[in-house]
């Protein structure tokens, strides 16, 4: 399975994802500069965390106009896999591949921490290796991680089982319904604020994030 990691000006977690997919899991991986327009050889697109275009205007608001994003949308529409992590989640909502928006944290502070998460659904190729009864722990690092959507959108997400991850215990950023990660209706596109790639190597003390990538493979 070949992974393509999108790199925007301001991305800073792309090498972390490459380390997981290429070095830990031995999968073919290439970084894709945002001005490229070819994804024909890629099975999975990952939009990593960081500060694409310096987060000017809004997080992800400029990145959605990059040439590569037309191809990412087409990739998703073909049923292929797309994962957006942190800033990548913001980009996916701006591009319309996922509903809702990520806005300023409740207390208007940047948060860098490890948080417990409840896996809400294992009815997804991304989460099939997790358990809904055993919380996992992943790092977060964001200033605009508060998930917001209108009531109808929230109802659809909940009724369709599109909420994959929820903050357990304390809600760090004010996200509605404690939402930490969602998928689209066809379940091939996932966006999440926590960083699975930062908790994928046992040397870091926690490796709960590696299953997200292993499940897909």
From TrEMBL:
The keyword Membrane does not apply. Its EC number is 6.3.5.3, 3.5.1.2. It comes from Chamaesiphon minutus (strain ATCC 27169 / PCC 6605). InterPro entries: Class_I_gatase-like (IPR029062), PRibForGlyAmidine_synth_PurQ (IPR010075). HAMAP family: PurQ. It comes from the Bacteria. It catalyses: L-glutamine + H2O = L-glutamate + NH4(+); N(2)-formyl-N(1)-(5-phospho-beta-D-ribosyl)glycinamide + L-glutamine + ATP + H2O = 2-formamido-N(1)-(5-O-phospho-beta-D-ribosyl)acetamidine + L-glutamate + ADP + phosphate + H(+). Keywords: ATP-binding, Cytoplasm, Glutamine amidotransferase, Hydrolase, Ligase, Nucleotide-binding, Purine biosynthesis. This is Phosphoribosylformylglycinamidine synthase subunit PurQ. GO terms for biological process: 'de novo' IMP biosynthetic process.
């Amino acid at each position: 399975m070949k992974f393509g990691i999108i790199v925007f000006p301001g991305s800073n977690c792309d090498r972390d994802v490459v380390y997981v997919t290429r070095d830990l899991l031995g999968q073919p991986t290439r970084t894709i500069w945002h001005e490229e327009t070819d994804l024909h050889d890629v099975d999975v697109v990952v939009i990593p965390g960081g500060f694409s275009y310096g987060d000017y205007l809004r997080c992800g608001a400029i990145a959605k106009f990059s040439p590569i994003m037309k191809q990412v949308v087409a990739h998703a529409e073909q049923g292929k896999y797309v994962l957006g992590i942190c800033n990548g989640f913001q980009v996916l909502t701006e591009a319309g591949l996922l509903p809702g928006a990520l806005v300023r944290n409740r207390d208007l502070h940047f948060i860098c921490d490890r948080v417990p998460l409840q896996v809400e659904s294992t009815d997804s190729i991304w989460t099939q290796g997790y358990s809904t009864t055993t919380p996992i722990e992943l790092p977060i690092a964001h200033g605009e991680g508060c998930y917001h959507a209108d009531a109808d959108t929230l109802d659809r997400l909940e009724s369709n089982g599109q909420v994959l991850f929820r903050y357990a215990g304390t809600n760090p950023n004010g996200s509605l319904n404690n939402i930490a990660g969602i998928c689209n209706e066809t379940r091939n596109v996932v966006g999440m604020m926590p960083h699975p790639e930062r908790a994928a190597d046992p040397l870091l003390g926690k490796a709960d994030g590696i299953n997200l990538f292993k499940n897909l493979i």
